[in-house]
Amino acid sequence: MVVQFNIGYKTSYGENLFMRISEFDVQGKEIAKMLLKMQTTDGNVWKADATFNNESIAYIDYSYAVFYNGEEERNEWAVIPHRMAFTCRKALLYITTDIWMDDPVFSFFILQHLPTVFISESCL
After folding, report:
1. What integer pLDDT is reported at residue 105 of this predicted model?
2. For the whole model, what pTM was predicted?
3. CA-CA distance, 122 to 107, in Å (whole number)?
């Protein structure tokens, strides 16, 4: 099975976008990892195709990272990775369009000031 990944992310000249992909079996055990280089024609829209054995994996977790001169410059906020579950064993092609999940600079501030939700006992 082939998964086509697409993401809009503006890079500067010489920067390359890569994907870190981890494959997991049905028990949740990591069975493989890969670093996949993406392709672009304009530095704004990045694409990559990855081939997986849909008989042995249940899902993949993945994230994006920017490299320059072979060194990682920045990556996504990896607290919650992207996840794709393969629920259809007969599927030959999956297509996904993603967004970059930036690391919130003030994540401690955001988490402290989330609204409080009250649930009445009748809802429990």
Report:
1. 59
2. 0.79
3. 33
With residue 112 as reference, give the H or E element that holds it. Answer: helix 107-112
For residue 109, the 8-state DSSP code is: H
Q: Which domains does the chain have, with CATH numbers?
A: 2-123 (2.60.40.10)
Whats the size of the chain, residue-wise?
124
Mean pLDDT across the chain, nearest whole number? 83
What number of CA atoms fall less than 13 Å from residue 95's CA on the CB side? 0
Buried b (16+ CB within 10 A) or exposed e, 43-80: eeebebebebebeebbebbbbbbbbeeeeeeebbeeee
Q: What is the DSSP letter of 116?
A: P
DSSP 27-95: TS-EEEEEEEE-EESSSSEEEEEEE--TTT-SEEEEEEEEEETTEEEEE---SS-EEEE---TT--EEE
